[in-house]
Amino acid sequence: MAVTGDETDEETELAPSHMAAATGDMPTYQIRAPTTALPQGVVMAASPGSLHSPQQLAEEATRKRELRLMKNREAAKECRRRKKEYVKCLESRVAVLEVQNKKLIEELETLKDICSPKTD
DNA sequence: CGTTTAGTGCGTCAACTGCA
DNA sequence: TGCAGTTGACGCACTAAACG
After folding, report:
1. Inside any domain, residue A9
2. Close Cβ partners of A83 (under 8 Å, ≥ 6 residues apart)
3. Residue pLDDT, tens place only, A64-74
4. Number of domains in chain A
5. How sure is the predictor about A4, in pLDDT bands with cuts at 50, 70 and 90?
6. Which residues 52-81 on A are within 7 A of strand B at the CB atom?
7. How much is the pTM?
8. Would you say residue A63 lies in a domain?
């Protein structure tokens, strides 16, 4: 059951991430911050052309891996933060819609009372 | 008390997407 | 097509509440 992006199309206006987030008035799950700011302590690589020995290659591979892990660590934190925010938005929207729904039901009952023929 | 259980956060991997 | 970013899934550690 591969993980493909066929989530269901039932009125998704808050699409998690890359699913062509639809127009809603809520912030989509994915809000891109101007990234690129590397966490402290990250040193850019030596110019690739200067590597020769297996030792150096191994060190470079290790360094690349650590850099990737560090970046992904930060990305995961940010992703979770956005997800929490997204869930909060959904919850508050639910609250609003519940109130709205309640009002509509009340209105409907009122109208029913007005319109129904009186049976003495 | 010590043990168990449920909830939460984190780091990592892997799959996926969009862009140059 | 390769690369970087995003995110679901997994396992681990930690904490608070419940229980005997």
Report:
1. no
2. A16, A29
3. 999 999 999 99
4. 1
5. very low
6. 69-70, 72-73, 76-77, 80
7. 0.67
8. yes
